Amino acid sequence: MTINLTDPANHPSNGPLTDERLIRVRDALQRTLTYKNGSTRTMSLLTQ
Q1: Which one, 16, 18, 42, 48, has least CB within 10 Å?
Q2: Where is this region: Disordered (predicted)?
Q3: From the CA atom positions of the chain, what is the Rg in Å?
């Protein structure tokens, strides 16, 4: 693999998902879901 970030196939985000990235995505989705279910942004921040 060459380090040519102009080629989408070589972009770092196209690599395998690490546990840390999966956890960050899960947490972001949970916060969004909480916010869309009627709670306020402040409330979702306090429940973490």
Answers
A1: 16
A2: 1-22
A3: 16
Which residue type, as a one-letter code, is found at position 48? Q
Give this prediction's pTM. 0.45
Q: What is the residue type of 26?
A: R
**Helix (H), strand (E) counts: the chain:** 2, 0
CA atoms of 15 and 39, how far apart (whole Å)? 35
Question: Sign of torsion, CA 42 44 46 48?
Answer: negative
**Domain residue spans of the chain:** 8-43
Q: How far apart are CA 7 and CA 9, in angstroms?
A: 5
Segments of the chain scoring below 70 in pLDDT: 1-12, 34-48
